[in-house]
Input
Amino acid sequence: MKHVDEFRDPALGQAALARIAALVPQAQRALGRKSVAEGGAPIKIMEVCGGHTHTIFRYGIEGMLPDDLELVHGPGCPVCVLPIGRVDAAIELARRPGVVFCTFGDAMRVPGSDASLLQAKAQGADVRTVYSPADALTLARELPGREVIFFGLGFETTAPSTALVVTEAALTGVTNFSVFSNHITIIPTLQALLDSPGLSIDGFVGPGHVTMVIGMPPYDLVAQRYGKPMVIAGFEPLDLLQSVAMVLEQLVAGVARVENQYARVVREGGNARAQAAIDDVFELRESFEWRGLGEVPSSGLRLRERYAAFDAERRYGLVARRVADPKACQCGEVLKGALQPWECKVFGTACTPETPIGSCMVSSEGACAAYYNYGRLSTVRRIPRTPAKEPAA
Amino acid sequence: MCLGIPGKIVAIEDEQRQLGVIDVGGVRRQASLILVREPGQPLDQLVGEWVLVHVGFAMSRIDEQEAARTLELIREMGELMELDRAGQVEPR
Ligand code: SF4
Output
């Protein structure tokens, strides 16, 4: 397939890997660190986006990297960061008589307090999987006697689509359609992460598809205020390898810049029409709860007053509830990159993709599920390297 | 959910609703072109363009020249390594 296969070319992959292997010791020296063999710490690069986590595991990239380089999997999987309270609210909506609740497939298995959407469906709720928010609107037109609710999930990549569907519903006078918005924004999240104490990340691989919407300038603060290199990356294996090499080049040169590896898709200013669509329909919430990260100021999007009729929260008078994460689950630490998934006590035993305890085990973009599905080998290789944290009492 | 896929616009399906038909690896899908159309641009002009499709919306045009340039840069990484090896300066 064009624009895909070229970026999976194994020979070019070898070239990029060789370059990475050469750059890592240089970067260690530039950072004034000893190598891992000499008792030093590895260089840590975080991929913020769950799509990248997926690519890394699908192609076994971790296992090909030098020992002195560690990839840390960040919080960029919108399904994984959905707090239990919001999942419960979604299920409550889905169980209302007359409601057809539409969701992306990824969110079906996310555990709430006592059920997932999939279980609610098995118990009789009308929950349907859609590929696009536009499908939910079509359904609303086809089922005038029912109330169709779309579960709005995702970063700035999906927010424009939800926004456009809401505007279309408003323009065409559809009255049985609403959105339960859990859309989130990337920059406040990155900032919360960079401000979290004890974070030891040397550089970032940034989310290509969010950036094709918001553009490059919003990331300036990562480089300027926090002094970390950031490379916006595409999603094929070569994209990732090249981006990692670009972060390392910056570390070697002792600079911190925002660079664009994914220039075939990402324009400097992003997509102005998509930005306008978001801005027309959504406004920032003062604060939004994230699984694992807690409340993050200005990180969530809700519908503006003028679209109140399409806002499921207002329409059904939902009250925000906070529900504590299950005790055994260490998703929060995993999402912050403080813990590797296999270091969680229930990883692969009580918690598997079939019986997830935390949401990181649910989506194929979640770090725990990615490790479980693809990561067995690299896990074995990695266990002796980072000593597991003392289990929290 | 966040995985976008490249596809080629092969037809316009509904001028008014700005819907196109996109070929994604041999499978034809309907997608909105509203976000990739320049203001005032006739929709037909988009036929033949490669775009990144995400949840039923074409989100960005794929720039063929940039795609080629990226691959070129990766190729150069390989050549750089060859040079290093030839000059025996490969860092440990
Ligand atoms: S393995 Fe399961 S319980 Fe542990 S952090 Fe991951 S999702 Fe949470």
